[in-house]
Amino acid sequence: MTSPVLFEERIADNGSRIGVATLNAPQTLNGLSLEMVDLLDERLQRWAVDPAVALVILQGAGDRAFCAGGDLQGLYRSMKEHQGEGPWANAYARRFFEHEYRLDYRIHAFPKPILCWGSGIVMGGGMGLMMGASHRVVSETTRMAMPEITIGLFPDVGGSWLLNRMPGRTGLFLALTGANLNGSDAFYAGMADFRLDTARWDDFNEALLHEPWAAQPGGPGTGNIAPRSINDGLLRQVLLAHEPSAPLEPGPLRHNAFLVNSVAGSNRLEEVYEEIAELKDHADPWLARAAQTMLAGSPGSARLAFALQNRLRLRSLEDVFRAEYVAALVATSYGDFQEGIRALLIDKDKRPRWHPATLEDATDAWVQQFFVEPWPEGTEHPLEDLGRAELG
């Protein structure tokens, strides 16, 4: 049986190694299962302490997607199995979110360069993998989004941290609308660092093998410079040498930046929701589609995404992951998550019955349940050690 994640170590001219991890489920657009998460995490732990490995590449099999999301089918089955039993009873959801968030955090904190090839579709769980990478690379086919409002969830995998760091009110607009971004807008929103054309990807990988990577601390020629600094610089040079010469044209987000900041400018969600809703018949199809997606999406998800961004604005990445874990676990029991997956992927009727049905019903009091730790008293938060012993 073929592994859902393929691993390779390419040997450079000087003997250093480049670790390559390929998500290998192209039939599901490389959707991230618990098995894939665990395989990736175990191998990254090994590569982190292997002095011969200079850098890591994350990529997806096929040409359609890096990773289009998480294991919604598995989560749906677990929610059906434990319906009415409360969030903590769902052992699969507990493991999935804990392991996924730990992997995402490991990538953020990884001691070596990680290049993520975000070509094709990058959504949901794929965003969690890519956003922590030190070198985030997009192509002419990149399409990014955090469309969790359409399935009754919220932009998780550190999304509350990422969206808060985007220009102006961009992050709130994207959370509420799930709007798609191309490679150009990924740069504008702070979600990409470099770009390559897909036609040059193989040439770029070949060029990496001929660089003088510093794999051993204090190795020949490194002097007092840390290997990480050397390798970051070498990787940047190769990326820039293969960058397309044509300038980037502004994407729809940047093109509409003034309007986006205006409609999402209020500190009251009701006002923001109303302003965005008025764009549903806009002449710009990107804006119209964004508004229509919000209006068809879960009102509870809109309230939860808004509340998370406000609560976590100044919190650390570790705190964001811990808060999102609680909210995600509660969502498997009390939110619209199960119904959203049913309508989109199980029955495929695309007619979810949201509860609460309106934003007015999804009140500030209603959303507080997503911040209450659902485990028995005296139980430690499953991500309590994040940032301390996590890399051990």
UniProtKB/TrEMBL annotation:
<protein>
    <recommendedName>
        <fullName>3-hydroxyisobutyryl-CoA hydrolase</fullName>
        <ecNumber>3.1.2.4</ecNumber>
    </recommendedName>
</protein>
<dbReference type="GO" id="GO:0006574">
    <property type="term" value="P:L-valine catabolic process"/>
</dbReference>
<feature type="domain" description="Enoyl-CoA hydratase/isomerase">
    <location>
        <begin position="18"/>
        <end position="371"/>
    </location>
</feature>
<dbReference type="GO" id="GO:0005829">
    <property type="term" value="C:cytosol"/>
</dbReference>
<dbReference type="GO" id="GO:0003860">
    <property type="term" value="F:3-hydroxyisobutyryl-CoA hydrolase activity"/>
</dbReference>
<dbReference type="InterPro" id="IPR045004">
    <property type="entry name" value="ECH_dom"/>
</dbReference>
<keyword id="KW-0378">Hydrolase</keyword>
<dbReference type="InterPro" id="IPR029045">
    <property type="entry name" value="ClpP/crotonase-like_dom_sf"/>
</dbReference>
<dbReference type="Pfam" id="PF16113">
    <property type="entry name" value="ECH_2"/>
</dbReference>
<dbReference type="InterPro" id="IPR032259">
    <property type="entry name" value="HIBYL-CoA-H"/>
</dbReference>
